[in-house]
Amino acid sequence: MEYLITGGAGFLGRNLANRLLAEGHTVILLDDFSSSSVSNLSGLEKSKIKIINHDVEDPYDMSCDGIFNFACPASPIKYQQNPVKTIRTATLGVFNAVDLALRNRVPVLQASTSEVYGDPLIDPQSEDYWGNVNPIGIRSCYDEGKRIGETILTDYARQYSAEVKIARIFNTYGPYMAPDDGRVVSNFIMQALQDFPITIYGKGNQIRSFCFVDDTIKGVLKLFESKMDHRPVNIGNPHPLTMLELAKKIISLTNSNSKIDFFDLPGDDPKIRTPNIERAIEKLDWKPTTNIDDGLIKTIDYFSTFI
Ligand code: NAD
Ligand code: UDP
């Protein structure tokens, strides 16, 4: 099969491409390289990939056997740098992906996000929770953009019978994250490896759950291959961690001399986010298998190559 991955040069796109190639497929990687670099694709078998430099806001056409719509910056720092661009990517990009899917009569899988739950009032979050989202805050370009993305896809499924899969991906980490992309795992590891102060925002008692990238990609592929309809499926690791616990764990795993510095918490930063993955277990027979220490050690090894 030949699959299109939009945002294919980014963290998840690159890992997904690697996995699809290992399964014997070829991939088309469409990316504008706004939050990644072509060097992130080194190591992929060149004869099996096509790279297209294109902005998903603008329509595109090609034949392919399936679409993974991953184009969109995922780091809060990156998506807030140009919020108008982010919401255009998250909305127009979805129209263009699903229109292409209809023209080819192939499935489209959307990389949605746990951010659709906003600053949740219940924990853990299951797919039937509608969320608690600020429509005009600094995270809204991403959160609301991704929510509209789900709406667009669901309406295309209902109205035009588009074959749509929606993965609500929770915080994922691992090799091929950009070392400077500003997310917590890459920041803490890069800081710890250089004995720089660890930058905790707020008191560090906010909670996230981190899924190792190989687990996330397996879940995404199981969803793509499943008979699941357009209903969203949470893909994440339910194991909760405070940012202070994460910082201490990374300092210990890197044998670092870093101290911890505390900074202001950015606006609308969710206090707690962990997935209920019962739907993924039941419908996809999927759950993550990598424990946080093993995943972090692999990620630390990867980031060490940048020091
Ligand atoms: P990333 O920033 O590493 O990769 C995103 C890729 O999309 C980059 O290569 C970037 O250049 C490209 N891109 C951005 N805007 C584009 C545009 N307008 N046209 C073409 N290409 C564009 O992020 P990631 O972590 O790989 O995330 C990939 C997808 O998964 C995103 O849609 C994100 O919302 C979603 N997601 C990721 C996570 C996570 O923890 N990594 C969690 C939830 C959802
Ligand atoms: N964070 C932090 N220090 C950093 C980067 C992030 O304390 O250097 C916090 C951030 O405020 C948030 C959590 O870590 O509470 C996860 O941040 P990230 O940007 O990775 O993703 P989010 O889950 O907020 O989208």
Question: What does this protein structure show overall?
Answer:
The protein is of the alpha/beta class. Helix content is 37%, strand content 17%. A 7-stranded parallel β-sheet has the order 3-2-1-4-5-6-11, with helices on both faces. It has a two-stranded parallel ribbon with strand order 7-10. Uridine-5'-diphosphate binds at residues 75-76, 171, 183-184, 187, 199-201, 206, 208, 243, 266, 269.
Task: Give the SSE map.
Layout: E1 2-6, H1 11-22, E2 26-31, E3 49-53, E4 66-69, H2 76-81, H3 83-104, E5 108-113, H4 140-160, E6 164-169, E7 172-173, H5 184-193, E8 198-201, E9 207-209, E10 211-212, H6 213-225, E11 233-235, E12 240-242, H7 243-253, E13 260-263, H8 278-284, H9 292-304
Parallel strand pairs: 1-2, 1-4, 2-3, 4-5, 5-6, 6-11, 7-10, 8-13
Antiparallel strand pairs: 9-12
Bound molecules: nicotinamide-adenine-dinucleotide and uridine-5'-diphosphate (UDP).
Key features?
single chain; 307 residues; alpha/beta; seven-stranded parallel beta sheet; two-stranded parallel ribbon; globular; binds nicotinamide-adenine-dinucleotide; binds uridine-5'-diphosphate
